[in-house]
Amino acid sequence: MKAWEEKIRKVVPYVPGEQPQKKGIIKLNTNENPYPPAPGVEEANRAFSIDCLRKYPDPTASDLVNALADRYGVRPEQIFTGVGSDDVLAMAFLTFFHSDKPIFFPDITYSFYDVWADLFRIPYERKPLDANFHLNPRDYDAPNGGIVFPNPNAPTGVYEDKSVLEDILQHNADVIVIVDEAYVDFAAGGSAQTLLDRYENLLIVQTFSKSRSMAGMRIGFAIGAPVLIRYLNDAKYSFNSYTMSHHALRLGVAVVSDEAYFQHTIKKIVETREWTKRELAGLGFVFPDSQANFVFASHPAKPACEIFAALKERGIYVRYFPKPRIDNFLRISIGTQREMEQLLQALREIVSDEKICEES
User: Fold this and answer.
1) Taking the complete model, does pTM exceed 0.85, yes or no?
2) Contact at 8 Å (CB) between 336 and 34?
3) Three-state DSSP class for 222?
4) 316 phi and psi, to 5 degrees?
5) Strand extents, DSSP E, 23-72
């Protein structure tokens, strides 16, 4: 190693899902919405004037902030926006997790959390989920520098009741608790937003990438007490004042404005998810009761690595995580009804095959 390399900040990066460019594939590996954005997005895109690109965008993202505040029934000073929820979460890590004590998050969870913790030199501890992939609130009672977890969780899809979240909040009043709600719009139990009035240390993070069909535009936001949002903005303006483009801001407002389309799309995905669960169970797959837009499934007689490879050969992409405790599971995004029917047909053929994958 060269002398100058010794001072470089080194981390093991997050590994995103494959983004294959081949035509005709069925892409069920990154939890994208299978339906297009709201019709108003196309209209806003056509009306977009490129002349505005010569000027900086609004650093406060006021139009989008106001639209989100109206939609979620909060004050504008309770909204923070960023370039996807990853940007919002990273800024929250940087802002709120600044202690000698470790932050806590589950051992099976969104795999960006430990990356950010390593990048920002934040000590952390992974708390094991139980055998059914649920949180144990008592694991989070120990002294810590903050807590973060998704609800529903990724990649399991398990949703924790608000009573579990409130238990954790009540026992951690002296730290910030971040609930990552990337998939909450698909969950019957709904958002933790109802707890915001009682817990000033709660920050909720959501995204436009899943339920609002805008993964390619990169829009995320947080809802929290005004004091938390002020601290986030202080950090943002010390790092990059102009985080969101004119285009993203304009199209983001258009998406939020069409509630009817949003609810219609959610309903279709949830109906397809429940159908998929029934069909998977009929093939012998086991899985936790997903409340997200994916199913985390395992087959007791067929290794996940083999199913993953066989599906890929057929042009069907799902996500496989070769990690402890979950290396025999596949995360299967919910596509259109037709796509899921094709997936199930492929799985019927694969699970009846006797071939077993070799250990790598």
Assistant:
1) yes
2) yes
3) strand
4) -115, 120
5) 26-27
Q: Could you tell me where the DSSP H helices lie in 207-286?
A: 226-237, 246-256, 259-282
Given a cut of 50, whether residue 128 has pLDDT beyond it is yes
Only one residue has tokens 């990356």, namely 115
Confidence category of residue 354, pLDDT binned at 50, 70, 90 = low
- Tens of pLDDT, residue by residue over 56-95, are 999 999 999 999 999 999 999 999 999 999 999 999 999 9
Q: How far apart are CA 182 and CA 25, in angstroms?
A: 25
Cβ neighbors of 274 (< 8 A, separation 6 or more) are none
Tokens standing for 108? Answer: 């099976």
Give the CA distances from residue 107 to residues 101, 149, 151, 334, in Å, rounded to whole numbers and listed in that order.
Answer: 18, 10, 14, 24
Q: Which tens digit of pLDDT belongs to each residue from 277-311?
A: 999 999 999 999 999 999 999 999 999 999 999 99
> How many Cα atoms within 13 Å fall on the side-chain side of residue 271?
9
Rounded-to-integer distance, Cα 35 and Cα 26, Å: 13
Spatial CA neighbour of 317 closest among 35, 111, 13, 31: 31
d(CA 78, CA 300): 46
pLDDT given for residue 222 in this prediction: 98
DSSP class of residue 137 equals G
